[in-house]
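Q: I'm building a small set of examples for a reading group on sequence design. Run inverse folding on the following structure and report the sequence directly after it, with nothing in between.
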């Protein structure tokens, strides 16, 4: 009938809420925005950063960290605490 164990509260979030997934999503979103901005930066913006496309590099870095958080959440799922 049901996948729930006896005595388990159906309203307990369990594995559905993992803060690592939230962090990965937010860092991925910010990284994607900065990567697009870095690709489309004009010469004036690049000159302000001493010739470095800082938005592009920070965006790529955020995407790498977001992928690491997502991989961590996927390979090491959060266990439900028994109470």
């Amino acid at each position: 009938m049901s996948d729930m164990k006896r005595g388990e509260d159906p309203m307990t979030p369990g594995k559905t809420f993992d803060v690592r997934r939230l962090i990965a999503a937010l860092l991925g979103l910010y990284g994607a925005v900065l990567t697009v901005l870095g690709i489309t930066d004009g010469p004036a913006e690049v000159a302000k950063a001493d010739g470095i496309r800082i938005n592009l590099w920070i965006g790529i870095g955020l995407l790498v960290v977001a992928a690491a958080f997502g991989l961590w959440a996927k390979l090491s799922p959060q266990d439900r605490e028994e109470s």
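The chain has three helices and no strands.
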